[in-house]
Every structure is written in C-alpha cells, then in structure tokens.
Design brief:
Length: 121
C-alpha cells in the first residue's frame, strides 16, 4: 500500500476509512460507503486503512474510535466523522465540495468586468 500521505497529495478528493476486522459496524458500513462513492462521487479516491495493520497511523491521524472517516480536499483535512455517522450527512458534506469544484471547472479564467458609475443623488 502506498504511503497514506502520498495518496492524499496525489488526489484532489480523498476519503480515508479507518476500521479493523473485529468491528461489526465497520463491516456493515464499508460496502454502503463504497456504493455511495461509486454511484455519486466517482472522482473521490477511497482508501481503507486497517488500524491493526498500521497502528502508527492512529496517532498521525488522531483516530480515537472506529469507524472513522476523514475527508481531504486539495490536501487539506476538511472533516472527520466517527463511529455513529449518517450516510445522509456524509453525502451532503461531500456534495458541497464536489458540486462547488465541478461547477467551477472552466470558469477559472473568466473575469467579470464591472463598470463603475457614480450614484445619482
């Protein structure tokens, strides 16, 4: 597996799912999360991390409970969801970033021209 920091740097959108094999909530949530990302947010890089296999990551990413989801946008940690999370809440949070980014593609070079006029009083 690539270094997690490299994955975050290489992808504009990155969602990291921290779990372990003994967590029943994690087992149920993971396929639902994968389905949501594949169907609604295909440009988001999804990475799972088993914290039993990578215990050093717990401190690095401040993981206090599992499952934990951390979303990165343009290398910046935007939000974290823990244990009892709502997929609906997650979807709304992701939509905000996703829609803003994709609605602005092609508009970066547009310049708005304003004409200054004196007020008539």
């Amino acid at each position: 597996m690539k270094n997690l920091n490299e994955i975050i740097k290489e992808n504009l959108f990155c969602l990291i799912y921290f779990s372990n094999e003994k967590c029943n909530v994690c087992k149920v949530l993971k396929p639902k999360l994968q389905n949501l990302l594949e169907n609604k947010f295909p440009k988001i890089k999804f990475q799972t991390v088993n914290i039993e296999e990578k215990p050093e990551i717990i401190g690095q990413f401040e993981i206090f409970t599992i499952p934990t989801i951390i979303f990165f946008y343009d290398k910046k940690r935007e939000f974290t969801l823990n244990r009892y999370m709502s997929l609906f809440e997650l979807e709304k949070k992701l939509e905000r970033f996703y829609n803003v980014y994709f609605s602005n593609i092609g508009k970066k070079n547009e310049r708005k021209h304003y004409v200054y006029t004196k007020p008539i009083f």
